[in-house]
Amino acid sequence: MAQGKALLGRKKKSAGAQLKKKRQKAATKKGWKTCTTTKQRKLQLAKEDQAVSKSINAKNEAVMASRALQNHGTIVLGDLKKVGKEELSKQKQAMLKKTDTTKKYVERAKKELAKLNGGR
Question: Counting Cβ atoms within 10 Å, is residue 77 exposed (0-12), middle (13-18) or buried (19+)?
Fold first, then answer.
């Protein structure tokens, strides 16, 4: 017969089993959602969702930082300021590229019209 409380109670889990459970839970976090499963397919889907969310959040953060800098706001965080400046320069380059192609199109159209009118 067992004497005392030391021998009673649940059996302790091994360190490997505890680590495995911790790894699975950490690998499948997405924001406020956590998924505790051992199915590899579901783990992979959760990781993909997490990666997509991270990339979307990073893009949104860069856009918002560029808007703040464009409106002459001050950003204290250096990395966020750097990302915002890079995003702002990308937006400017895209705008200039769009206007350049429009100008080229207008010039070509004028030349074609001049050819059709007999060079007047």
Answer: exposed
Three-state SS at 30 = strand
d(CA 26, CA 34): 8
- Residue 5, phi then psi, degrees to nearest 5: -90, -10
Cα–Cα distance for residue pair 35/16, rounded to 1 Å: 20
Residue pLDDT, tens place only, 45-104? 888 888 898 999 889 988 988 888 888 888 878 888 888 888 888 988 888 888 888 888
CA separation for the pair 61, 80 (Å, rounded): 8
pLDDT at position 99: 83
Give the helix/strand (H/E) hosting 33: strand 33-34
Residue count (the chain): 120
